[in-house]
Amino acid sequence: MSQYVVLIGPPGGGKGTQAKRVSEAIGYPHISSGDLFRKNLRAETDLGKLAQGYLDRGELVPDDVTIAMVRDRLSEADCEAGAILDGFPRTTPQADALEKIAADLSAAVDPVILIEVPDGTLVERLSGRWMSKSGRVYHTIYNPPQVPGKDDEDGSDLYQREDDKPETVRNRIKVYEEQTAPLIAYYQQRKVLRPVDGDQGLDEVTHSILTVLEDES
Ligand code: AMP
After folding, report:
1. Residues lining ligand 1, CB < 6 A?
2. Are 142 and 125 in contact (CB under 8 A)?
3. Residue 84, H or E segment
4. Atom in ligand 1 nearest the alpha carbon of residue 90
5. Count of CB atoms situated within 10 Å of the CB of 158
6. Torsion sign, CA atoms 75, 10, 62, 40
7. Three-state secondary structure call for residue 198
8. Other CB atoms closer than 10 Å to residue 58's CB: what's the count?
């Protein structure tokens, strides 16, 4: 039986950063639907071209496309023991699809970790965020790079995500509240939801998540 650990929470809540850390700690691959879309955008694939407008506007890419992309990724050999899912599912149909994928691949969706962050800090968190081409995430206040504007590992220039502009950020938060927040009740009903306080230092949040995972096993 493989284990799908899902991280949910608002944009800017630290899902991506924490998913990477937890992936390194427990060895399951980190699967971020947003990263998969951005890779397709950069490689100018058909999927990337389809997704571009949605990402630019901070809207969700249609469920069928997103589900197929994640299903393909979860079918790869490195996900045999398990995976950390970051940014998927984001809608109830996606959550239903994930149950189906898990059943087909003999996996369990458990636990679903909800990273809770007060609304007021989200815009601030997102507007200070910088990324490296290789996917590492920095923050001017919370997680600054050693050399300003450069990636710690390969020294390449950092960039800001287009959709971290304040106007798009507000739309992403609205989309989260309307379409993703209902998943909290969805997973509560399935008794797999584990809330974690995301308003702590990075190390403390990672520690809280790893504690949840240890308690489960
Ligand atoms: P993220 O990196 O998780 O913030 O995702 C960036 C953008 O990718 C989102 O604003 C959406 O446009 C798209 N995206 C990522 N994951 C999903 C998903 N599960 N369903 C639909 N769109 C998604």
Report:
1. 11, 33-34, 37, 54-55, 58-61, 66, 87-88, 90, 94, 163, 172
2. yes
3. strand 82-86
4. 19
5. 19
6. negative
7. coil
8. 21
**How far apart (Å, rounded) are the C-alpha atoms in residues 142 and 174?**
24
DSSP states of 131-176 as a string?
E-TTS-EEETTTB--SSTTB-TTT-PBPB--GGGSHHHHHHHHHHI
> Which residues of the chain register pLDDT less than 70?
217
Residue 127: per-residue pLDDT: 84
Q: Which of 8, 47, 52, 55 most suits a substitution to test ligand 1, by most atoms within 8 Å of the C-beta?
A: 55
Atom 1 of ligand 1, nearest CA residue? 34
Question: pLDDT for 115-139, tens place per residue?
Answer: 999 887 888 888 888 999 888 999 9
> Cis peptide before 29, with omega less than 30 degrees from 0?
no
